[in-house]
Design goal:
Oligomer: single chain
Largest sheet: 3 strands, antiparallel
Helix content: 40-55%
Number of strands: 5
Strand order of the largest sheet: 3-4-5
Number of helices: 7
Radius of gyration: 17 Å
Length: 159
């Protein structure tokens, strides 16, 4: 999938379609539609992924997406639509900021705060906890997806 297809797909609606019913269990799959998803720009992760996707082909559009995501930084995390709805910040979004920022010649002013918050979410076991509250308290467990993004992000700082 090329960058344009990725961005187009990020903005498209995905519907859950029931494949089969097995007793009390339901098997579903995601189906990509041709309808544009309304409000996708309200999510920091989608904006950061759009930035990463566009960064080498359309610097102006990429920077616009990055700046849209940075506006959501409130000193504790990226307060986007998901954060507002569930009342918790997602750690992987901090990692995406760090990964995205490494593509810029000049890191954003709040970069130290993002890295500091990311480091604070590491669990004693070594992995990264998935979420945290507005007062910084970790919520949930460490998982492979969040930990992988955190390790990739912190690895970009060493370069």
């Amino acid at each position: 999938m090329n960058r344009r297809d990725f961005l187009r797909n990020a903005a498209l609606c995905v519907l859950l379609d029931q494949v089969k019913q097995l007793g009390e269990k339901t098997i579903k799959t995601e189906v990509l539609t041709d309808r544009e998803s309304k409000g996708w720009e309200d999510y920091a992760d989608l904006l950061l992924l759009a930035f990463i996707s566009l960064s080498k082909t359309d610097a102006g559009a990429a920077k616009q997406r990055f700046n849209q995501a940075l506006v959501m930084w409130d000193g504790m995390g990226l307060r986007d639509r998901a954060t507002t709805k569930i009342g918790m910040y997602a750690v992987y979004k901090l990692a995406l900021v760090v990964i995205a920022a490494q593509r810029l010649n000049e890191p954003p002013a709040m970069m130290n705060g993002v890295v500091e918050r990311l480091l604070r979410q590491q669990a004693e076991c070594g992995g990264w906890i998935t979420d945290y509250t507005a007062d910084g308290k970790p919520v949930g467990l460490a998982n492979v997806e969040t930990t992988s993004l955190a390790v990739l992000a912190l690895g970009t700082l060493a370069r």
